[in-house]
Amino acid sequence: MSQKPEKIQVQIKYKDAQQEFTAEPQEAWLLLNQFFKDLIPSFEIAQKLWLNIDLQQLAKDLVGIVAFSVDGVSLLVPKNRLTDNEAISVWLTACYLGCKLGMVGNDALSKDELQVKLEKTGKITSTRLGELAKNGVVQKTGDEKFRITVYGVVQTQKNILPKIKQKTTRTQ
């Protein structure tokens, strides 16, 4: 007279994935192993593909290029050393960081604000913003402002900031 094993109730959660099941011990063990076999590698791969921004590293990368004060964001690099697209990317990246750190109230700037900062005509500013939006670097907000995308921050950090540092160290 063999007695049927009692069922085990399992609830497992890993980040956003969770699974619950009730089964006999042997089946529960198999289901648990299947969970780890199927889901964990997928999450690890997906995590490697996810664009992440390390705010501490971004702040270090922006040292000497931008500064924050009660007046807002200031560009420390002479404007004539930057292309229009570089300047827009840096301004918006600084706004992104400043907003994340609570140093500025908004991560977006209007076309008019960027036009003043660039000291360019409205047409040139619109053209540059259009190019950057087309490339996925910036996006227009619902209130007609522009903010940098996560992709744009990553591109600025990887490609633009090192160029700017190289340009400015050559002249010192």
What does this protein structure show overall?
There is one protein chain. The chain has 172 residues and is of the alpha+beta class. The protein has helices at 25-49, 55-62, 84-100, 111-118, 122-134, 150-170, and strands at residues 8-14, 17-23, 66-69, 72-75, 108-110, 138-140, 145-148. It has two domains: 8-49; 55-170, Arc Repressor Mutant, subunit A (Orthogonal Bundle). The protein contains six helices and seven strands, in the order ββααββαβααββα. α3 packs across α5 (122-134). It is elongated, with a radius of gyration of 25 Å.
- SSE-based structural type: alpha+beta
CATH topology of the largest domain: Arc Repressor Mutant, subunit A
Instruction: Please report the number of helical segments.
Output: 6
Provide the gyration radius in Å: 25 Å
How many individual β-strands?
7
Distance between the termini: 90 Å
Poorly predicted ranges (pLDDT <50, ≥5 residues)?
none
Report the CATH architecture of the largest domain: Orthogonal Bundle
What is the overall shape? elongated
Question: What is the residue-mean pLDDT, rounded to a whole number?
Answer: 89
Q: Order of strands across the biggest sheet?
A: 5-7-6
Percentage of residues in helical conformation? 40-55%
Name the CATH superfamily classification of the largest domain: Winged helix-like DNA-binding domain superfamily/Winged helix DNA-binding domain
Provide the β-strand percentage band: 15-25%
Main beta-sheet annotation:
3 strands, antiparallel
What count of domains describes the coordinates? Answer: 2
SSE order, one letter for each helix or strand: EEHHEEHEHHEEH
